[in-house]
Structures are given as C-alpha cells and as structure tokens.
Amino acid sequence: MTTATHPYDALMDITARPKAVFVRGAGSYLWDDSRKRYLDFVQGWAVNCLGHSPPAVADALASQAKRLLTPSPAFYNEPSLKLAQALVETSAFDQVFFANSGAEANEGAIKLARKYGSLYKGGAFEIISFEGGFHGRTLATMSASGKKAFEPLFEPKVSGFKKAKLNDIASVETLINGNTVAVMLEPIQGESGVWPATDQFLRELRALTEAHGLLLILDEIQTGMGRTGKLFHYEHTGIAPDIMTLGKGIGGGVPLAALLATERASCFEHGDQGGTFNGNPVMCAAGLAVLEQVSKPDFLKQVTETGLLLESELQKVSVRHGLGGVRGRGLLLALDLKLPIAPGIVAQAFEAGVLLNAPQLDTLRFMPALNVTKAEIAEMIGCLDEILTKAGAARRVA
C-alpha cells in the first residue's frame, strides 16, 4: 500500500474530481495510487474503445515514437497518409483532415460548411443544429451546441446557429432560409442523456437537405469507431452525410480526431485550415491500430451482441427497481432513473470500485470498452443492483 500525496492546487479547478489519482490501466480496469482497482464503464467518455492501454495501441505508439515524432504539418508523413486512406476506404467520404480533439474537428466542419456557402450558395452561413446537442467547448462549437448550461457563458457567442428539435423534421424545415448552408447533429445526443435520432428521422433529414441543396454534417465523435455496432452510426440508416467528424475512440486513448468530407464538400483552399500537430504521425499510428481492430466484421458483431446483453441487463435492473427505460444503441446506453439520484449513485459506485457517468441528474450513461466481457458487465450490474437496493430501502424507511 502506498501513501503517495499529490498537490492538487496547481491544476485549474474546472470540474469536481474525487481525490484518487489513477496510475495504471489495463482493459476495463484502472488502479489508483493506493492500489485500489476500479471497473471502468466510462472509459474516458467512450475514448478507450479497446480498453485502457491496449497492447496494439501501445506498441504502435512506441514503434512510431522511435522512428518519427513529427516532421511538421507542412510535409507528408506515412501514418497520416495510411490512416486517411483507410478511413476513406471504409466510409462514404473522399478526403480527411486530422485534428487533435473532437471540438477541433467540429470547428473544422463548421468552417468547411461556411466556406462551401461562400463559394456555392451566395454566402449562406447559417447552420441548423439541435436542442440538447453537444459539439465541443470552443466558442463556435459551444454556439452550435444546444446545451442550456452554455447559454449564459462567454458572451457574445458566435452567431449563425439555429436550433431545431430532435426527431421533429418540421422544426428543421421551418428554420431553412436563404442563409442556411447545413444541418449538424449527433446521431445520438450523448451529453444530454443518450437521446437517439431515429433512423427514419435521419433519412428524412437527408432527403430534406438534398432537396434544399444543404450539407448534412454528422458529429460521430461519440458514436463512431464501432460504438453502436457499425463502424460509423450512419451505416444503420442507409444514407450518408456530406461531412462527418470523428474523435474520442479513433485514437484509442490518445488525442486524435478527424474531419471527413465528400469530394463535393471538400472546398478548403490553401491557408484556410491547419494545425501544428494535426496529422501527427504518432497519433495517426495509434489511429491505424484502432481502425484495424474495430473495423473487423467479427469485432463489430461482438459489439452488437455485447450491447444487446448490456441493454437486457439494464432493463432487468429497471424492472426490479421500478425505473425508466433504457436508451441508446450498441455500447452507448443510458438508464432513466426517473429521480434525480444519478450523482449519488455515481459517488457510491466509485467508493465500491466501479466508474459510472451521470450526464443528467436522472440518467446514468454506460460507455464501456468495446471489448468489455460478459463477466465485467455482470460485475457492474451487481454493483448497481446493490446500490439501488439500498437506495430503495432508504426511501421506504423515509
């Protein structure tokens, strides 16, 4: 047992964190500096798609780091060329721009859409996004987001974003005017509590945008890279967007994101877009290792099957404790608690050695590694069941 102490004050206090300091991770587990083990069903908010420190990613990082860290984005490097080609070959897109975070990829998508509007739609610049959506923490992506907590922050925001209602095609159509250039959304709104756009709504949206000559932008930062049982969520619907953003899982634990676009939408000119570390060979080597694993049909089939198992187990928990429904797809799921008790459950689970996430006061979100095992699901469910049983008993006594 170690008794390490750490100074906390040097880090800006931007969120509430428990005092534990994590020092090691492997697969679905983390260990803190007191050697306590935690089962992780958050995985960096769907970042560690292959679990903590997967050998394939660690080996790719080490190997590339010994060869080349960065030649500058002014020059080509081999891993970025290979990863871009692999993404194009496995998707509906023709060109790729690499970034370091999902917010940066979404910022790039907004810029690309506005560039398209300036070139081909008479200067159109407005983008329709959605209430409850979350696209990042830059000023533009916060403006595109429909998160209520963002509304009073950092004013004035970037103008040009109108908000429609998810799964309400009429609310989108009402907002279209001569200044509209694109519609942007997450296929599943993660931060607001895992609210999916229906497949039918996404098909209607594709038809509507095509009828009006608008770009369709899908933010697949949380749903992409196999999270919902397809390599990309849009594959469930039979349609393809003009622009897609990826992040989180694409790096398997390292900072990597991507902006993908069709040839028609790829209208950046020299000097329009860039970034010092964008397309970094070490990060792209990790991305190649991730894509090689998650794009395998057998792997995606396993994600689907494991997701159905987790969904079934959560539904059983809901029935046992009189809770609400289970939302989501694949291994991005939420349990409706019907009461504002989610933060308390997260805190109790942490003490018991299980990491859960509460995106809303009445909602638990589950984002385990895509290779999570049945035994690990059973362990998490057992912990959650025990906490809910105690909470129910406490309420009855009260």
TrEMBL record:
Q: What EC number(s) is this enzyme filed under? A: 2.6.1.11
As its record notes, the protein acts as a catalyst of: N(2)-acetyl-L-ornithine + 2-oxoglutarate = N-acetyl-L-glutamate 5-semialdehyde + L-glutamate
Residues binding pyridoxal 5'-phosphate = G102, A103, F134, D219, E220, I221, Q222, T276
Q: Set out the biological process GO terms recorded for this chain's protein.
A: L-arginine biosynthetic process
Relate the assembly described in the record: Homodimer.
Quote additional remarks: May also have succinyldiaminopimelate aminotransferase activity, thus carrying out the corresponding step in lysine biosynthesis.
Protein's recorded name: Acetylornithine aminotransferase
Q: Which organism is it from?
A: Bradyrhizobium manausense
Task: Tell me the name of the encoding gene.
Answer: argD
